[in-house]
Structure formats: structure tokens, C-alpha cells
Amino acid sequence: MQTETLEERLKVQAAQLGFAICRIAPADAAPQSAERLRQWLDAGHHGDMLWMEERAEQRGSPQGLWPDVRSVIMLGMSYAPGRDPLALADVPDRARISVYAQGKDYHDVVKKALKALARWLVDQQPGALKVFVDTAPVMEKPLAQGAGLGWQGKHSNLVSRDHGSWLFLGAIYTELALAPDSAERDHCGSCTACLTACPTDAFPSPYVVDARRCISYLTIEYKGPIPHDLRAGMGNRIYGCDDCLAACPWNKFADAAAANRAFLGRAELAAPELADLLALGDADFRELFSGSPIKRIGRNRLVRNAAIAAGNSGDARLRGGLEALVGDDDPVVAEAAAWAIGKLRA
Description:
Strand content: 5-15%
Radius of gyration: 21 Å
Main location: cytoplasm
CATH class of the largest domain: Alpha Beta
Oligomer: single chain
Subunit structure: Monomer.
Subcellular location: Cytoplasm
Protein name: Epoxyqueuosine reductase
CATH topology of the largest domain: NADH Oxidase
Number of helices: 17
CATH architecture of the largest domain: 3-Layer(aba) Sandwich
EC number: 1.17.99.6
Strand order of the largest sheet: 1-2-7-4
Number of strands: 8
């Protein structure tokens, strides 16, 4: 009987740890990444995410971060939703939270599984390695395409033929020379569904996102007053945006049954009332979003976003909550509340 290879056993072990897909790429699998990153940064598309520019050399290639890396194990963990991610689009008094943030913090879940897989690999064949989940200068999406998990769609996110757009990515850099899988080719064709779905026109061209216009960036990364011309497009989105992902026709192959159960949405985050979010203090915020990736943006940013959503709602019943925020200690929150009151009076 033929003996299974280390690579085959690795993929079996990854599946047992909750990963939907595991593939291997050589460390030089994404040779164009550094140049594409530099062009994107030079255009200012990263907004005020200065950390991307500061560590661009390390981010440009795996060897730039760790010269000893020879293989990259790329893994995807599914969070395919069991319901329509755009279901609240026409419910203006409720807040829309991106599907990925309604369950447990993916950083914790994916990293725990990565570490377990890394321990297993070292037991099988000793060698130095490093694990990464979204917090290090790693070009996960180009490497995932180089490993064959999927391809970077025109919305710049990874698309899998089996799991659609709903994958969290993790990486294991190893000094082992593992047999690589074949890279995936682009299957977008002439489709532009993701581009036309964007409510703030954040795509200056296919495959390029301008973070400064992206609702995910504005609601999560950006700390200042959100530009007025982009506020209407935010609608009732208060953390992230699923529109370009949800529009992708490849999602018809995504199976919610394959999703890791840790990412099942918490009932209180599925459709929270804007009135309740406007009333959050620091302690209430920390309690409500404990164990959620939302916790990292802090109360002020979340309430700022809720105030803008309230202004977009047309619901005069929210004025009381907004008026209580006009004197907020955070001037960005206070400005958003005043703007929203003006919109509701108009």
C-alpha cells in the first residue's frame, strides 16, 4: 500500500482542525506582489494605514520577512453565512455588521488552529516555522492564489471555486521544502458584479481598492470624521461591508454547513438596534463586544458609525439618542451626532 506523503497528511490534519482548505506554495509564489503593493501605496490607496507603508519591504515577499522560509502553507477557514448578508439593507433602524464579525474573533480562532497544526508538523518533521493571521506583514491573498486556494477577484479579495468569498486566511512559513500545489488562475472573466455593488465607488479599476472610499476601512480603520460625501453610501453599515463579497456569483457554491461553528453569529449582533448602540458607554461597549473583533475599534468609533447610520435612517425617533451625543467627550462622535440630527431635520 502506498504511504501517504507529509503534504497529504498535513491536509488531513488541517481539515480535522477546522480548516476548509489547505494548500502549499513555494516562498517565491507571488513574484509580482512587491511591485503591485508599491504602486498601491504610491497612489495613496492605503489611506492612513501607515503601518502598511512602514513595513512594505517585509510585506513584499515572504523572504523579506523571514529569509529562511522555503515553503508557505496557506489555509482557509470558512465563515460562509447561513442567511443573506444583505438582509438588513432595507431595515434602516437596525445596524448592519459584516458577517465575519458577528461571531468569535477570527484572529483567536484561526491562530489557535494554526498553532496546533504547526505543533503537529514539527512533530512529524522538525524545522523552524512561523504562523500568521492578518497581523503581520504578509501578503496572504497573493500567496493563497499561488498555493491554489483561489484567486484575487476584481474586489481584491480571495475567491474560491468551492467556498466563494467567505474565507479567513492563515499562513505558516516553514524552512521545510514541501511539495507545492498548483497556483489558481483567475476565473472572474468579464463579470463586474463586485465593482458595481460598491456603494461608495471604492474601486478605481478592477483588482484595485481605494481604502479611502471603502466602507470597511472607514468604519474600522479610520479614526477621524468620515468624509460627508461618503456618509450616505454607508447606509446602516456600522462595522465593515459585505456588498462586494456578497455580489460575487461564485458564492453560489459556498456551503454554510462547511463554516467553522465558532463564526456562527451571536443573536445580539445579527440585527442590533441603532438606538441601543447610540446609548453605549465604554463599559457597555466592552461587555457587548467581548470576544468579538469589533472590540478593537473601541466605543467611540463604533458610536460614530452608529450616529451616521442614524442620520441615514430617516427615523426621527433616533433624535433623542443623537442629542445626548452632541456633547460627547469625543469631538468626532459629537460632530457625527450633530450631522445626523441635521439630516433627520431636513
